[in-house]
Amino acid sequence: MPEPSRKPSGFANLVLHLHPKLVPAAALPLPLTFGLGGASAVLFLVLAVTGALLLVVYGPSPERAHGTVARLVDEIPFGALVRNAHHWAANGLVLVCGLHLLRVFYRGGHLPPRKGNWFVGVALLLLVVGCAFTGYLLPWDQLAFWAVTIATGMLEYVPLAGDVLLRAARGGAEVGPATLARFFVLHVAILPVALLLLLAFHFWLVRKVGGVILPAGAGDRAAPRGPLVPTSPDLTQREGAAALVVLAAVMLLAALWNAPLLAQANPGLSPNPAKAPWYFMGLQELLVHLHPASGAVAAPLLGLGMLLALPALSGAEPPTGRWFGSPRGARHALVAALLAAALTFAAVLANEPLRRGKPWLPALPPAVRNGVLPLAVLALVLGLVSWLSRRRGGTRQEAVQAAFTFALASFAVLTLVGVFLRGPGMALVLP
Amino acid sequence: MTAPPAIEPAAPARRDFLGKLGTGLGILAAAELLAVVVAYLAPGKGGAGRGAGLVVAGPVGEFTPASVRAFPGGQFYLVRLADGGFLALSSRCTHLGCTVPWNEEQRTFPCPCHASTFDEKGDVLSPPATRALDLFPVVIEGGIVKVDTSRRISRARFEPGQVVHL
Ligand code: HEM
Ligand code: FES
Description:
The complex is a heterodimer of chains A (431) and B (166).
Chain A: H1 10-15, E1 22-24, H2 36-57, H3 65-74, H4 79-106, H5 115-137, H6 142-153, H7 162-170, H8 177-208, E2 228-230, H9 231-256, H10 278-289, H11 292-313, H12 327-356, H13 366-391, H14 396-420
Antiparallel strand pairs in A: 1-2
Chain B: H1 11-41, E1 54-59, E2 67-71, E3 76-80, E4 86-90, E5 109-110, E6 117-118, E7 124-126, E8 135-136, E9 138-141, E10 144-148
Bound molecules: protoporphyrin IX containing FE (HEM) and FE2/S2 (inorganic) cluster.
Protoporphyrin IX containing FE (HEM) binds next to α2, α4, α5 and α8 of chain A.
């Protein structure tokens, strides 16, 4: 290997702002991260480019929005392709970003010294979902209008400030022109810029701790991270290839499946069933079962709180950097996931006749009976799951991991039920 | 030790105080900024929303007892109860705001969004909704039924006093 030249090429120079000159060979294999963070970054770039193209045609007012989107799809050359690419990249980003979070968590990347970056990551996730959801309103079709009516309606149940928050989000009592103006500014300016700034910070923090988490025992005492290889070309070629795969996947989806565009928004008629975008369907399903104060306010905040609390809950032991900590950790997580799936599905089925019939425990107020009580039971079950994991030899990290997996699998089942098993009137139907 | 030692003893308490003061003022400034932004974004309640105004529903005789008629433009249902009294029910679900349809067979308003159902008086039959459908004031003048859609009345449940008789 010749001495790297003093003046790197223009490309390498650019790349070396993100990466160090040398990286551990152990950081290269795909299963280490599955390149999910990088894929998120590529999708973000695709969104920026296609978004700029959409902006040239789109008119951000209730009178024009639906018409300009329809014209884009019907008349403008490649308009449908651009719109589809933006749609699929946006949904892909929510999905890939969520998977990235799971990769980080199940390898212990959320623990010190990477704890700070985990919090940055949670903020990134909120921004990504915020971008996706504000974009959802822009076509001003029936899908958009009702999803945003429901989601902003949730603010009303925030104690004390509910009314003012609702009007701040909508710009009035109801979803209308002021709502579209707000969401447009958030979607094309505030949220993407915030995302970009935070991403720069995110990347810098990854580099500052010396790169992604590696399985313990990659190297020896002298070089704890194992042998090093030059970033360019060893890492950059892999990243380039992965970026092309992501791009190809987005374009393929865009060529094959159109982004939906329903009839223009009609405040007098809700579609039946009126469903939220898939990443909110778990929450919508929860809202069917829980009192709104719990379903719309407490449950989302508790979920967010749990994500933020994960590093602190997991204790001070350094992570192993292996998937699920150890094979035992993986076993416990799997059992927790299966248990959660079965229990959640059974609870959904059992509640179907219950919630239509006479209230059980009629002495309790509905906010307790249908809200506080179910959430308390869930908390109890999560405690039980981690206690069981400890009893069967799990480390503290593995016990927390089992409980988190339980909550996650439960949410996943709610999402699947909402997406596939809810028909007209939100009744349970076969897919 | 070249630093002037005389300053050291007094500093920690003062620095501590100034630090706390700075943090406190910072939090105060951030809270003010937040309040300003929310106030800017949340306009006053001034009632002239969508569909504001007086809607003329029609002569009393057009509405048979125990019937429900939709007024999509005004976003309400005019209900004539079996005893001949009138109620104007907002069609907006009190859970999260979807528009409820009327199901003539089951004589309920089933919400398509999270499956709340309401009866013809607007009372909640099944959750997650927690309040009965809102009302609009009904006025009967010279045998003509009019509904004031600019005044939305929220209520916990149906009470006989809400019904407007001839
Ligand atoms: C737009 C969204 C995001 C982008 C573009 C992004 C990008 C990246 C990239 C490129 C890496 C380097 C390792 C890899 O490729 O996997 C990384 C690492 C990391 N990410 Fe993200 N990320 C995003 C969102 C998130 C979220 C939602 C979380 C978690 C809440 C998160 C937490 C972390 C942490 C803790 C690391 C360091 C993990 C390690 O070193 O093993 N990120 N991110
Ligand atoms: S909006 Fe009607 S049940 Fe949720």
